[in-house]
Amino acid sequence: MEIVAYGVTADERPLLEAAFEGRHRLRCLELILDGDTVATASGYEVVCSGVNDVLDRPVLERLAAGGTRLITQRATGYNNIDLRAAGDLGLTVARVSSYSPHSVAEFAWALALAVNRRVTRSATRTRDFDFRLTGLMGRDFHGRTVGVLGTGKIGTAFTRIAAGFGMRLLGHDVAASPECQALGMEYTDRDRLFAESDLISLHVPLLPDTHHVVDAAALRRMKDDAILVNTSRGGLIDAHALVETLRAGRLDGVGLDVYEEEAGVFFFDRSLDVVTDDVLARLMTFRNVLVSSHQAYYTRDAVGEIVATTARNVEDHLARRTTDDTLVPPPTHD
Fold it and tell me: What are the D-isomer specific 2-hydroxyacid dehydrogenase catalytic domain coordinates in residue numbering (predicted)?
């Protein structure tokens, strides 16, 4: 079978090649799949996509016309795929429904700690042999309140770490996690979570109901010295409202591993390019904002699980099996 994978990093490539070696022909591309690059998928029965690929109806129509029958996404989220259009076109769609939740949860804490303790600023100074402490004062997380928006597998892993810090636990989700409750988490509405939390971490999927869940109103409810961390999806935060909040001198720190308009920017070297995204450029100017490159999932453990599931999705497609990873089942008749 002919497989083409998009947005493949140098670290990921050998894992993908090993997973398919001897069974299928794999082509790995660093390209993002969108309307400009979709011609490169012509003739490939399987397209292996990433979260920043644009799989809207026009792209899916060209994939189907070019012989694609399966789209297997190397991620849990799938808001970039028009599932209705895929079904209309007879395309099967699968994803990685779960992988190591610890990878993302631990990185969310890395951002929270780095922002709180001014680690980036300190490291930059000490490289210049400036060892002053002025401006580096943080605070203990112990005894303070953490608000966890979304307590699925990742949110629960994040909560376990928060409990280890000795924090008061607030949570919000459509269904309570028994494990989080056993740790002492109190479930409440969003407004109270935003208002009372010293640290807020987002762990919900991007859906119509969660798009810009952190908007101007939510930001106004937050404490002036709150810390906000997002390792889920960029669209959860209204970035324009966040910039205005920071311009007003509010929020002690922000850690962002994702950004709403990251497609075509994250995962690439844009160091020599003119920055055309004014919002992202402005966010980068705030000393209390730390932006990373959508790397929270990027551990050997998690990527290994993602690749293994992706390989299984291809075998399930060949066997016409549906699993928990199937988003759009194969058509009844080819």
Answer: 9-324
Q: Which residues contact 42 (CB under 8 A, 6 or more apart)?
A: 66, 67
Token output for 5: 């994978």
Contact 158, 179 (CB under 8 A): no
DSSP secondary-structure letter at 251?
Answer: -
Average pLDDT along the chain, 334 residues, taken 10 residues at a time: 94 94 94 96 96 95 97 93 97 95 97 97 96 97 98 97 98 97 98 98 95 98 98 97 98 97 86 91 96 95 96 95 95 70
User: Closest Cα to residue 159, out of 174, 175, 177?
Assistant: 177
Domains of the chain: 2-99+299-328 (3.40.50.720), 101-291 (3.40.50.720)
Could you give the CA distance from residue 265 to residue 260 in angstroms, rounded to a whole number?
A: 11
Across the chain, how many H-helices and E-strands are there?
A: 12, 13
Clarify whether 262 is annotated catalytic. yes
Rounded CA-CA distance 246/54 in Å is: 31
The predicted pLDDT at position 280 comes to 95
In the structure encoding, which two tokens stand for residue 319, read together? 């066997």
Distance CA 80, CA 279 (A): 21
Catalytic hit among 196, 260, 262, 282:
262
Set 45, 233, 260, 282: catalytic member: 233
Tell me the CA distances in angstroms from 316 to 22, 49, 74, 194, one per residue in order. Answer: 17, 17, 15, 43
pLDDT in the model for residue 153: 95
Q: Is 55 helix (H, G, I), strand (E, B) or coil?
A: strand
pTM of the model: 0.90
Question: How many residues appear in the chain?
Answer: 334
Q: Is 61 a catalytic residue?
A: no
